[in-house]
Automatic annotation (TrEMBL), chain A:
Gene3D superfamilies (alphabetical): 3.30.70.20, Aldolase class I
Name assigned to this protein: dihydrouracil dehydrogenase (NAD(+))
Species in which this protein is naturally found: Donghicola eburneus
GO cellular component terms given for this protein: cytoplasm
Catalysed reaction equations from the record: 5,6-dihydrothymine + NAD(+) = thymine + NADH + H(+); 5,6-dihydrouracil + NAD(+) = uracil + NADH + H(+)
Domain of life according to the entry: Bacteria
Pfam families: DHO_dh, Fer4_21
Assembly mode: Heterotetramer of 2 PreA and 2 PreT subunits.
Function statement: Involved in pyrimidine base degradation. Catalyzes physiologically the reduction of uracil to 5,6-dihydrouracil (DHU) by using NADH as a specific cosubstrate. It also catalyzes the reverse reaction and the reduction of thymine to 5,6-dihydrothymine (DHT).
From TrEMBL, chain B:
Domain FAD/NAD(P)-binding stretches: 144-430
Annotated protein name in UniProt: Dihydropyrimidine dehydrogenase
Natural source organism: Donghicola eburneus
Superkingdom to which the source organism belongs: Bacteria
Start and end residues of each Dihydroprymidine dehydrogenase domain: 22-131
Amino acid sequence: MADLTTNFLGISSPNPFWLASAPPTDKEYNVRRAFEAGWGGVVWKTLGMEGPPVVNVNGPRYGAIHGADRRLLALNNLELITDRPLEVNLEEMTRVKKDYPDRALIASVMVPCEEAAWKEILPRIAETGCDGFELNFGCPHGMAERGMGSAVGQVPEYIEMVARWCKEATDLPVIVKLTPNITNVLYPAEAAKRGGADAVSLINTINSITSVDLDSMAPEPTIDGKGTHGGMCGPAVKPIALNMVAEIARNPETRDLPISGIGGVTTWRDAAEFMVLGAGNVQVCTAAMTYGFKVVQEMISGLSQWMDEKGYTSTSDFIGSAVPNVTDWQYLNLNHVTKARISQDDCIKCGRCYAACEDTSHQAITMSEDRVFEVQDDECVACNLCVNVCPVENCITMETLPAGAVDERTGKIVSGDYANWTTHPNNPSATAAE
Amino acid sequence: MTTSPRENGIVAGRLPDPVLQENFCDLHAPLDPHEAHVAADRCYFCHDAPCMTACPTSIDIPLFIRQIATGTQDAAAKTIFEQNILGGMCARVCPTETLCEEACVRETAEGQPVEIGRLQRYATDTVMAKGIHPFDRAEPTGRTVAVVGAGPAGLACAHRLAMLGHQVVVYEARPKSGGLNEYGIASYKSVENFAQKEVDWLLQIGGIEIRHEAKLGQHISLEGLQEDYDAVFLGMGLGAVNALGLDDAKVGVADAVDFIAELRQSSDLSKMPIGRRVVVIGGGMTAVDAAVQAKLLGAEEVTIAYRRGKEAMAASAFEQKLAASKGVRILYNVVPIGVTGNGSLTGVTLAYTESVEGKLVLTDDTFTLPADQLFRAIGQTLSAAPRGLEFEKGKIKVDAAGHTSAPGVWAGGDCASGGDDLTVTAVAEGRDAAMNIHTVLMGGK
């Protein structure tokens, strides 16, 4: 079984699965259960200033999106940072770290955008023995209205400024947690780097209204007839998170900035996908909230099996491996031609590929009297929609036409040469190939 | 007092009352809302869905299941009733395993079809329980139609005609409406007087009068109806039960359909007499319904004797399994050649059969089963068919629109040629004949 020990910013943990700063990491009781279940690390629920504790709504706090069979696809929440006294949290963190020295314990912090506030609290928290800090610049509700959370994360100058204060206040690693509620994630990521942050973690939750109660005419979750946007997380946000992680990982300004990947990690495979796109580890919340802490056992065994199968002996063997293959549209090979292929043995004859292609695509699938579905190569543009709507995995696949074959749709011979939009004759700004 | 199950002869009360109640409760319990949601989620919303093609009434199954999945049972039920006004009964009695559910792509994919029948019942029950009748009657057309038989074909025809604004009088030979839904289906498939409730619900459309104990050829004639009405629909089903050609008059020999009807009409199952050893001759649904219910009433040994092999049996694989699970023994490739007993039946002698060049022949290999009751379930034929009509294979000959050879006379259901003898097929034929009657009455072609 592969060794999953992962080193992130010099912080070693027995596996790359950390629990994200969120309700599951709000107190000692939960965190001890998490470590007993096998989680490699925990980012403690965000600590705030000393003083009157934060106040939460008295329910409900979560909304949800469900898929078939009521599978939870996403949660949204409007819970704030920890509502327990700072001192209680610090005492608990100290005890937990002492009892689990091999696990990562990160303190998530959010205080007002004032130098003194940050510089005062970080050394105090460091006394718990924690391994590092995560600056919560992502929380999109409740705290943002008070000039914290995503209100900071949406202004790159603030990110840079606060990151710098924090690096001046502590020797421990500082991770900046990024909000996805921005136009371009590179701006905050670059700001974090300029401020001296050791890493970024992303994504925080996405502003959302999950549903509307059509009787009370109010967004869910509804509190006394009113609702507000919450932060969305869970499997549905994974594609957004993967893209943002990859953008940072391949951006020349930030490519050496370590990333902790967050956003819908539910299985070992999700974790592996984040990591090959450049994340040094992953943080999980919704999967634990849906299935309990035990879910990490599948992540551990799954990642190990995959590493064994691939011959990887350390997570560092594959972190970032897919980054070179993330490119811009203009560099995609326009000479690469594929066609859909339907396995008649696997086809259950539901006809969804036909409906999708006939109604919404290119009329490239025919249906016979006895429900045999066949791809017409002279119409197929290889859009992949049939593959995506087919309920049987691998029943429809994409076949690459070899060089020299004729693409029946265009009548042209498939070239084995790479050619992209930058050199395409239809591109007004094309530069002639050298 | 309970009679011993081992008592010979045909006696009542072989099982204590609580056991009888349990034995005759709903075969498939209705889905609860959670179960319905889970079941509905499995539907793939297929294009030109195979289940829909397999349904004789062409219910838009993917649409009604999606309507259930999205929490609109009323809309789902309307989708069903638009095609099949007896969708509630069909949800209970359709051999879905050989129709929609056999065609379901998830049967192909996983050997586990979407539970279409139970979902249909969920939707239709929900709406019927609310008392909602989702259709309005059109303005009266001034046209009148006589319908013979208040079974599935006649009711479906009458409802559609009434909905289109025609005035309908239904003539029914029996004291109650419903036809085989009321008299011909195993009790555990239609509990709590569902057949009558369904008729009452259906009649809410208005414009339909049912006259009971009015039998064609006895109280009414086809000529009289043709004279009195603008159109006539014949949907009286089949009557006479085929004889075995043995000593059919012997005490203990009876028709399975009569046994099933008597059981359905019984208000006290502990008073239903049943033999200790029962043999049912036949291979269709009626044979299975009779055999299973004989067992459930407390018969010690129940045997179905069928002249051909398992694969040729008209009762579906599901029905055969149901019979086996209730302790009914099915003997294949056997034919009764004699009965024993002095006055009362004591045994049935059977011979094994062989297929020689496609023909069934008896072998010399014979044996005698002890039996004190024998049910005939080898099919029914059209009895007292009115004169002046053409026939095909013993049934009233109709064209694709359900029209007979006589002007102004349509027919559908079991008495008419074409289609399987199923409730759902009868509904489709009644409905389609109504549409054609409407076209003709309104001056179309």
